[in-house]
Each structure stands twice: as structure tokens, then as C-alpha cells.
Amino acid sequence: MKKYADNNRRFVEFNAGDLVMVKVPDPRLSKSSRGRDPRLMQKYVGPLPIIKRIGTVAYKIELPSWWKIHSVFHVSQLKKYSADKEDDARNQPSRPQLELTKTKEKVAEAILNHRVTSTAKRTHNEYLVKWKGCSSEENTWERVTNLKAFLPLVEAYHTSHAPRTSPSQVGRMSRDARTLGTLDAHSATQPLNSADQQPSPTDAGLPQS
Question: InterPro entries annotated for this entry (predicted)?
Fold first, then answer.
């Protein structure tokens, strides 16, 4: 039966330099994924370049430095990568969910970009993070929930990229601005102190001439 199946199975062939998506090892085996819905977990990561072919059905892949796994994959774990022509930010390599726990071991230096990704049930805000002491090749997209320790950097990013701020943030900033504007207008109609305004003779209880 296996021999018959092998004879009729046709694997996709790749060349050195081709970009592929790599299937993530079962994310349910990771401690960081406990309690999560497996249907919402990331199945493939990439794009990653092929270094060379190994044998007839395996390929060596150029992996990011934070991956502590073997770099040779069976062709069944790979699929051809198709670039997103509408949003180039989606073409950046992303970190698999099972590796997100390592974020705590690094220190974020800057937030470089922002994107919104969607799953079947919700949308997620992700940020391209430059890690201190790491090269630009090790920049990673992280969900905002994984950047709680670096929220000042996230806020600074939105402050310097006001046109890209999300509608909810714009609304909140507008409300704050209106509140401040109201206070300023009210302050402008009031004297700076009691000495700046002299009471009228009537108010002071003096006889009018």
C-alpha cells in the first residue's frame, strides 16, 4: 500500500533561493499555547529561503537565529510562498506562536511598523519590533499582547505616526483634545488672580457718584 501511494504521490519541487512557508511543529506541544484554540494557532511561518536540496524529498531552509530546531524539512512540510502585492508588511517573516515565550528574554529597542491581521473570529494588532543587540534580520512581528512590558514604545510609535493611528485611538485622542480645549477656553475667560480685576463701586459697596 505504501509503495503504491509513494508511486502516485507528486511532491512540489523547489530550487535554491525559492521562498517557502514552513509548517510549524504541532503548537499544542508548546507550554505557551496551552488553553488556546488550536484552530486559531499559526500553521505556517515564513517566508523563508531555501538553501539547497537534500536528497529527493528534503530541503535545507535558512532559519531565523531564534529557531532552535533542525534546518532540514521534508517537502510535505513546505508550501510555495505567494507575496502579498497589496500590503508589503505582510511579506515580513513572522515568529511562530510556540516561540513567543522567548520575547520575555529580549529587550525591545524600537517599534518599526504596525499591521492588523485577521483570524476567523477577530483581528489582531501586530508590531514590527527591533530587539536590542540584534540585527535587523531578527526583527519580528509581535502581537500587542506580547508587548505588555514595552507599552511605552508602542505609545511612542503611535504618537510619531499619528496618520496611521487606529480609529479608536484617534477617537480617544480627539476626546482628550476636546476636553483640554474646553478647559483652555474656560481658563481664558477667567482672571489670572483676584488682583487683576478691580471690583465696581457697586460690588464694593461704595456709593456711586
Answer: Chromo-like_dom_sf, Chromo/chromo_shadow_dom, Chromo_domain, SH3_Tf2-1
Domain with CATH 2.40.50.40 in the chain: 106-189
Q: Where in the chain is the domain with CATH 2.30.30?
A: 7-81
Burial of 106 by CB count in 10 Å (0-12 exposed, 13-18 middle, 19+ buried)?
A: middle
The class level of CATH for 106-189 reads mainly beta
Under CATH, what is the fold of the domain 7-81? SH3 type barrels. (2.30.30)
pLDDT of residue 146: 84
- DSSP label at 55? T
In this structure, what C-alpha cell is assigned to residue 99? 516561540
The answer for 55, left when phi > 0, alpha when psi is -120 to 50, beta otherwise, is left
Sheet containing strand 108-118, strands side by side: 108-118, 123-131, 140-143
pLDDT at site 29: 42
- The whole-angstrom separation of Cα 147 and Cα 45 is 20
